[in-house]
Structure formats: structure tokens, C-alpha cells
Amino acid sequence: MTSRHKLLKLGSPARVAVIAVSIFVCALSPDAYAENPNVIPVALRDSPPIQRSAAPPATFFTIDSVLARSDRAQGRGRDAIRLVSLKSSNTATDVQPALATIPAAGPEPFGLFPFRAPEGLPSRKWRGVESDLIKEEKVLERCRADADGCPSYAAQFLRLINAVKSKSGRARLDEANRGVNAAIRFVADSTQYGEADRWSAPLATFATAKGDCEDYAIAKYVALRDAGFPIDDLRLVLVRDRTLRQDHAVLAARLDDRWLILDSLRSDLIEDSRITNFIPLFTISHRGVLLLAASQG
Q1: How high is the pLDDT of residue 50?
Q2: Cα dihedral across residues 90, 94, 95, 98: positive or negative
């Protein structure tokens, strides 16, 4: 771990992600927001107020007055004042200057900065998904060559890819978001597989037409990638929803230097800056798993 990682504050998203990186369980359904939209996370309650010491009062002075006081102290008299040419409006002060402004936004979704994540369960799960994607790509290649021998779920996913490819700009993202949301019914992994958390490649998800939040996000990621959307502009983002106090996964896509969020709980795209209830933990892409933090220092 580098020194800049050690300097991360306890409450920062990156510190939270270091703890959460060992396991991620998506427990959201599209109806979850209706249950209790006003709940406040435990981590945000009963926090003691930050104590700040009072700053000393600022003292203002002019260069002329300082030199005049120095001359009088040296016995030069009232008429022996040396003056520095300053306009009367140019007044000096012993107030410390403002610190240089730190860049407000990083390059990743939600204006955050990326850090290499330690090896953990998300990294292993993602490598498993990448291995499955290679196998599924061979199925799609056979389907393109022989439509009659193509499994129905693979043909469905190919139709989605072609529909996404036929659009451009924001409409391409919207097609992927709505198409996947319509094709999959939310079912928790514990119900479908008897496991706390399983990440599935798109054809496995489309074969059952069931999945949870990361399965939606992975399917959108692959559909857009195969439709020609720049892979460098796609991120799976794992977050903590502070309203629901649950983990969640979405896809972020960068278009015209803005990150748009494709969410299994929303039919419409939404810009990341408009979302206030997410604590972003880490991103996943062809670059691997990256932690997110608010600053580089």
C-alpha cells in the first residue's frame, strides 16, 4: 500500500471500499425504493460534531503605517517618515492566503480518482466473468454463422446487440439500458442459485431471464462493447446506496465527457452528478478492479 493510500481518511469512499472489497452482495429489486425512501444510514447517524478552534482575529495594516511607526521608534520624529508608493486601496494583511484550489473532479464516474484495488473477491469474480465471456463469444460467433442452430437466448442477446448498434450517441445507451432491463427479471442470487453472490455473463443471464443488479450491468457492458461503444468509456460501478443501506451495481458510460448511469432500477439514463444517494466503492472494466476516492492526496 502506498503512502497516499495510508493518508485516506477513515470516512472516504476508498477506505469504505477497502473494507467492502472482500465481498459484494446485491440485494436490490426495482420495488426496493418504495419500502422506506427516507431511511438514514447508520454510519451517518449520531456522528459527533467537528470541533473547530476559533481563528485569531485578523489584523490589517498599510506599509506606510509600518514604516512610519519604525521611524518614530528610531527617534526620527514625525516629519521623517519614509513612504512607499502604494495606492490607498492596496492594504496588506496578515490573514493567510487561501489555499490553491484542488481539482474538483477526477476522471472516473462521480468525479472520483482511481486506485489499484488489492486482490480480493471482486477481482476473482471478475476474472471468472471474463473467462465466461470468452466462451460465450464463441457461441455468438457460431450464431452469426448459423442462425438456425443458435439457442434462443443467444439469438435474443444478438438481437439486442444489433439494436444497440443501429443507434448512436445517447440513444445507443438508452437502447442498451431499456433492452436489458426488459429482458431480465430481478431475482436475488440466494433465491436463484442458493449463493450469496454470483456474477453471471450475459448468455447465462438471458438463458434464465433472471438476475440481480450486477448481472444487468454486465449484460449492458457486453452489449455496448460488442455494438462498438468504446470500451475505455465503460465502467461497472459498485456502490453503496445510502438511502436503502444496500449494495448496488450500475453501468457508467462516458459520452461527450459526461458519465451517464445505466441502472436496473431506472428506465431513463441519469447523469452521475445528479445522483446523491450513492457511495461509489470501485469500478470494474477491462482494466480490472479499481478503488475510487475523492482526491489523489
Answers
A1: 38
A2: positive
